[in-house]
Design brief:
Elements (H helix, E strand, L loop, with lengths): L2 H25 L1 H29 L6 H24 L16 H7 L3 H4 L1 H22 L7
Helix pairs in contact: 1-2, 1-3, 2-6
């Protein structure tokens, strides 16, 4: 596993985790009091994802653009879901449950599992792209001479 394949995603996603925590603190009084714990848990999740990203990459040298784009999209998705979570108002649902009906996207965003399942599509895409690149690199190599 190359250091760069773990360090770049960790740096990009750590910035995203800080932005997520800032958004949560802006919208939620509870988050303002618990922000160190929220940030710590987010950074642990980011570190676990970055390590998994590095394991999938193995010893291959990935391009910086590939790493930045894929992990930038993941960080942007995390920030978007955080913003959408607070934008979906369900305060009236407790008083009027028959009036509030969430769409499937809103239900997915408000789910307790969304934070944990969000990295999976990005890791699956990374795995698929890594396999495709490896297969194309093997196809382009000249055959070894017997000797």
């Amino acid at each position: 596993m190359r250091y760069r394949n773990v360090a770049l995603p960790l740096a990009i996603l750590s910035i995203g985790a800080i932005v997520e925590t800032a958004v949560a603190c802006h919208f939620s009084v509870d988050a303002r009091g618990w922000w160190p714990l929220i940030l710590g848990i987010s950074l642990l999740q980011v570190a676990a994802y970055s390590f998994a990203f590095g394991l999938v990459a193995g010893d291959r040298r990935l391009s910086s653009i590939y790493i930045v784009v894929l992990n930038g999209l993941f960080a942007a998705t995390r920030v978007y879901v955080c913003c959408a979570y607070y934008a979906i108002s369900i305060a009236r649902a407790a008083a009027y449950p028959h009036l509030i009906e969430l769409t499937p996207l809103q239900q997915a965003i408000r789910s307790n599992w969304s934070v944990y399942l969000m990295p999976l599509p990005f890791l699956i895409a990374h795995l698929a792209l890594a396999r495709t690149r490896l297969a194309s690199a093997r196809a382009q190599r000249p055959p070894r001479e017997a000797g």
